[in-house]
Amino acid sequence: MSGKKHPKLLIASPEEIAEGKVTDVYFIRTRQILNARGIHENVRVEIMVKSFPENWQWALFAGLDEVLEIMEGHPVTIRALAEGTPFKPYLPVMEIEGDYLDFGIYETAILGCLCQSSGIATAAARCVKLAAGRPVVSFGARRMHPVLAPLVERSAYIGGCSGVATVKSAEVLGITPTGTIPHALVIIMGDSVTAATAFDEIIDPALPRVALVDTFGDEKFESLAVADALGGKLSALRLDTTSSRRGDFSRIFQEVRWELDQKGYSHVKLFASGGLNEKSIVRLNHVVDAYGVGTSISAAPTVDYSLDIVEVGGEPRAKRGKMSGSKELFRCPTCMEDTILARGAEAPICERCRIKAEPILKTIMKDGKRTSQSPTPSRIRKDVLAVLERLDVEPT
What is the mean pLDDT of the chain? Predict the structure, then answer.
């Protein structure tokens, strides 16, 4: 590829973010005033959420690794939840300590990283939970600005999605991108059978043979035609029927499933995509084996964190509506009940389970240096899938 510059792409570079240019102007003016007065105050700031969107009962904490990337090298100490940890409103999820002049201008960028990543990760986790063990693949990068694709699909992946569609995102995650053929190939080649056969003949045989069967004709008859052509090599059929022709999507899948079974193709799985959301996943679970979910994950509502000073020069101090002072957050490992106490307090005994709760805010950066290596996205995803078994979701 050429080294052509693209100045009209409306993005901030990583360098500009690191320089503090992606900030609300009043933080710049605050810095000017403090510098002019020679004021250097060591402060603690706390990040929390007062309420969740869409009647969510919990959210996943995500975006931490990007925050650490921004803050690395600045003389600050950070305590936070582990990325992928579920939490409820009014709980401290992160604390940053240092001279306000060293990190105050990064508030906008810090919140932006956390708010969007947490929203996407939570939406993905909710879909995964509602899919009840059926794989959910992230198909939503095309609904967001391309510069955000790695962020979008990393968040979806750590939220539990089994795969992502875009090449760059998969590269960042260290996994193989998921996807076979688009409608474009079927249209160019003339029919689903020709396109599926070409894929089988040309593409790496290690990849599963998944055919798209709704481009020109009836889903049932295209499914049978492709199954006859590929036989035992056919792994799954993807239906992405346009909404104007869909009718009852569940009935279409039931009909396809019935005919495949009647013709001896019970090994062929059914993959649904196209405008899916939490409610449609629940409606399709009885007949669909896997999902490709786009907009409802990638365009998830943000989790609206706030960042507030809670301590100045060692003295607890906070604005109205905010509890001052540094805090400990304890969680019962059995029932996941949370308790907030003042910093330094001993771990309480869970009243329900009669066992000692555990502190879940950990020091992850000390004087601008990470205290340990960040877990891989695959490790975070594994932990999220484990904790999802203990969380409830009502489709919205």
Answer: 95
DSSP 389: T
Which residue is associated with the tokens 């693209």?
6
User: C-alpha distances in angstroms, 11 versus 25, 147, 324, 363?
Assistant: 18, 7, 37, 32
Q: How far is 183 from 165, CA to CA, in rounded Å?
A: 15
In 3D, which of 60, 65, 129 has the Cα closest to residue 293? Answer: 129
Dist. CA 100–CA 39, nearest whole Å: 10
Q: What single-letter DSSP state applies at residue 81?
A: P
How far is it, in rounded angstroms, from Cα 170 to Cα 165? 7
234-270 in b/e burial notation, b at 16+ Cβ within 10 A? bbbbbbbbeeeebeebbebbbbbbebbeeeebeebbb
3 state DSSP class of 223: helix
The single residue listed with the structure tokens 């869409």 is 54
pTM: 0.95
Q: Are 206 and 242 in contact (CB under 8 A)?
A: no
Q: What is the signed CA dihedral for 95, 96, 100, 103, rounded to 10 degrees?
A: -130
CA–CA distance, 187 with 61 (Å, rounded to integer): 42
Tens-digit pLDDT profile for residues 150-179 = 999 999 999 999 999 999 999 999 999 999
Residue 237's DSSP bridge partners are: 211, 270
H or E element that contains 330: strand 327-331
Strand-pair partners of 68: none
Helix, strand, or coil (residue 386): helix
Distance CA 329, CA 342 (A): 9
